[in-house]
Design a protein that fits this description.
The chain contains 9 helices and 20 strands. It has 392 residues and is of the alpha+beta class. Strand 16 and strand 17 (345-352) form a beta hairpin. It is globular. The two termini are 46 Å apart. It binds adenosine-5'-triphosphate and magnesium ion. Adenosine-5'-triphosphate (ATP) is lined by residues 44-45, 52, 54, 72, 74-80, 228.
């Protein structure tokens, strides 16, 4: 059975840690930095043959009131960073600040932070109400204040009617909501969430995404959310940090990350991208003309300086490839080798010389697009502005 609770420790240290913060969070200025790490390095088992550098010279600032997501593949260092912010893991070098204070060597209970892990244990012998009240009781809050806060939290997570139930009589999603209420009750300044939705099925996960997002808006608490699911990250976040192999790859809004990937890794990891090898034929100011084997030359706007003959990668989203049967419309010819019906779109897998490309069209000939079958020869064009030049 999947257990969903706040903390692995019998007395959640994150809950007790609210001493400074509980009940007295002034609304911070939106440009206030909630937490930041500077030149952060984390080496596990340093000085032994098993030494592993999990975070490499990592610099990141998260603003107050943000829903901020750490996104990256398994093993890239997301949980390590979250545990360092929470005080559960010592850093090897660098500095970690929370609302301006250097907390690098402070224990979890001295930080205005609470954490929701993927696997935690709600106290099974306690009701939902008692679970939510627990952290406030540890803080020695007056009875009347505890009761008021618990009612507010129950309402916030839509669990009022379950207040007297025990955790093992509830679904995973309901327990997860109680866990969130328990973590939010002492009003931490910062809430760290490590893949809190990964144990839930897809439908529930989608529902909880919306709920988490509105909880964050309603409470104004800064959320640092960890996921390896890019769709989840794009759907929920104000800003996203993409991490690969212990290094920060890119930070930006979901739109920035999707539309303006700055590396092959980000273009490939976020959504789907066609990555095509090309060479710079001409470069002037902010425009490049590029040679792609088997295609006509293409133009692209570029932000970086390029040299004549320089190899680059081009990233083009599948929905921005335009296929047509007509002569003279394309930048190159391709053969359809697979067509996949996706409900709201049709995806075509294509071969153009050595290039394997994917195109996606809205279903039903929307925008006048035609349908194709495996074996068809098609002309490929790239929508204006769709080509992003990445240094190879
Ligand atoms: N206690 C530890 N001792 C040694 N190595 C560790 C320890 N914890 C994590 N690592 C290693 O550090 C790297 C980063 O691990 P981390 O748990 O931060 O990854 P993650 O991004 O959270 O991955 P996942 O998505 O799988 O949870 C991995 O290579 C992992 O094997
Ligand atoms: Mg992890």
């Amino acid at each position: 059975m999947q257990r969903a609770v706040i903390h692995p420790h019998p007395i959640p240290p994150g809950s007790i840690s609210q001493t400074m913060a509980a009940g007295q969070n002034p609304v911070p200025h939106p440009h206030t930095v909630a937490t930041e790490v500077r030149n952060l390095c984390k080496i596990y088992n340093a000085g032994t043959s098993r030494a592993h550098e999990a975070l490499k010279d990592f610099n990141l600032a998260i603003r107050a009131n943000e829903f901020f997501t750490l996104l990256g593949p398994s093993g890239c260092g997301k949980t390590t960073l979250l545990r360092i912010l929470g005080g559960f893991e010592p850093l090897t070098s660098g500095i970690c600040r929370i609302f301006g204070d250097d907390v690098s060597v402070l224990p979890p209970e001295a930080r205005p932070v609470n954490t929701v892990f993927q696997q935690y244990a709600l106290f099974p012998h306690m009701t939902v109400r008692s679970n939510i009240a627990f952290g406030l009781e540890m803080l020695g809050k007056p009875r009347a204040e505890i009761e008021r806060t618990v009612e507010k939290m129950l309402d916030l997570v839509h669990m009022t009617e379950y207040a007297d139930r025990k955790p093992d009589t509830m679904s995973g999603g309901q327990r997860q909501r109680v866990a969130l209420a328990r973590a939010l009750a002492p009003q931490p300044k910062l809430l760290l969430l490590d893949e809190p939705l990964s144990a839930l099925d897809l439908k529930l996960r989608q529902k909880m995404r919306l709920e988490l997002k509105s909880l964050q808006r309603e409470t104004g608490i800064t959320f640092v959310f960890v996921t390896h699911d890019q769709e989840e990250a794009l759907a929920m976040s104000d800003r996203v940090a993409v991490i690969s192999n212990g290094c920060l790859q890119q930070v930006g809004t979901p739109e920035d990350i999707y539309e303006q990937p700055q590396s092959r890794f980000v273009a490939d990891f976020i959504g789907e991208s066609n990555l095509i090898d090309a060479r710079v034929a001409r470069f002037s100011g902010c425009e490049a003309i590029l040679d792609i084997a088997g295609f006509d030359q293409v133009h692209a706007d570029v932000a970086q300086d390029l040299a004549h003959g320089q190899p680059v990668s081009l990233s083009i989203r599948p929905e921005r490839l335009v296929l047509s049967a007509g002569e003279g419309e394309g930048r190159g010819l391709a053969t359809v080798f697979d067509r996949t019906y996706l409900g709201n779109a049709v995806e075509y897998h294509l071969r153009a010389g050595d290039h394997a490309l994917t195109a996606r069209s809205p279903r039903g000939g929307l925008r006048g697009r035609q349908d194709f079958a495996p074996g068809d020869t098609v002309h490929i064009a790239f929508e204006p502005g769709s080509i992003k030049v990445l240094l190879s």
